[in-house]
Q: What sequence folds into this?
C-alpha cells in the first residue's frame, strides 16, 4: 500500500502571512493527490487537488505543488484569514481505485 | 445539487451491540468509500464500493462490513461493538471508478459505552 507523511502537525501564522504544509508519499504508482480542509464537527471538504501529470495548480489563494521525483507535494495558502483555521489533510490515491491514504493532518491556526 | 448525506449524525451504543450506518452519495456518483476517523489513528480506509461491488477493503476485522444498493446508497455495519469502535465514520462519494474527486459527508459520530 501507500504511506503518506504530513508535516507540520500544528501551524500558527499571523493573519495575512502564508502557510505551507508538506506531504510525502511512498508509492510511485499514486497519481492523484487531493487536499481536504476539515472544520470542527464537519466532514472533510475538498479544497484543491493535483494529478501526477501536473507540477502545480492554483486556485485563488491556494496552490499545490507536486514533485514526482522526490515524491512530495505541498499546500500553499497565501494571505491567510481567520476562516482558514482548520485541520488540513493531504491524501494520495493508489492506482487500484478510490482508496485514499491520508496524512495525519495539520492543525492550522490563523491569528487575527 | 445535494451533497453526501449520512444518517444518523450521532449514535450511542452499548458494547456487544451492532450498528448500521447509512450513506447516500451525490446523485450520479457510483463509488462510495467509508473511513473511520479517530484522534489517535487519523483517517483510515474501511472499504470501497463501486456499482454494488466491494473493490477494496482496509485492515479492519470482519466485524466491519458494508454493502451498496442498486441506487448507489451504501450501508456499513459493525457487529459486536467494542469501546475502540467509537469514532467518526465518514462516507465519501465519487463519480468515477478511480482517481477522481471524492466528496465527504458530515459523518456519523458513534460512541460505544
A:
Amino acid at each position: 500500500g501507500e504511506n503518506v507523511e504530513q508535516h507540520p502537525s500544528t501551524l500558527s501564522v499571523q493573519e495575512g502571512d502564508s502557510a505551507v504544509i508538506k506531504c510525502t508519499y511512498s508509492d510511485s504508482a499514486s497519481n492523484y493527490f487531493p487536499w481536504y480542509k476539515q472544520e470542527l464537527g464537519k466532514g472533510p471538504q475538498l479544497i484543491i487537488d493535483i494529478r501526477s501529470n501536473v507540477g502545480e495548480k492554483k486556485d485563488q489563494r491556494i496552490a499545490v505543488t507536486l514533485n514526482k521525483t522526490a515524491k512530495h507535494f505541498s499546500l500553499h495558502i497565501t494571505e491567510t484569514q481567520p476562516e482558514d483555521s482548520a485541520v488540513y489533510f493531504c491524501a494520495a490515491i493508489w492506482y487500484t481505485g478510490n482508496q485514499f491514504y491520508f496524512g495525519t493532518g495539520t492543525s492550522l491556526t490563523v491569528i487575527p | 445539487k445535494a451533497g453526501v448525506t449520512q444518517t444518523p449524525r450521532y449514535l450511542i451504543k452499548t458494547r456487544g451491540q451492532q450498528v448500521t450506518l447509512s450513506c447516500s452519495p451525490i446523485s450520479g456518483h457510483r463509488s462510495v468509500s467509508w473511513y473511520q476517523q479517530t484522534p489517535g489513528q487519523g483517517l483510515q480506509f474501511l472499504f470501497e464500493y463501486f456499482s454494488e461491488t466491494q473493490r477494496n477493503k482496509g485492515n479492519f476485522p470482519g466485524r466491519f462490513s458494508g454493502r451498496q444498493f442498486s441506487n448507489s446508497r451504501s450501508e456499513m455495519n459493525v457487529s459486536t461493538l467494542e469501546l475502540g469502535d467509537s469514532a467518526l465514520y465518514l462516507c465519501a462519494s465519487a463519480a468515477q471508478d478511480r482517481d477522481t474527486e471524492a466528496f465527504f459527508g458530515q459523518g456519523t459520530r458513534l460512541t460505544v459505552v
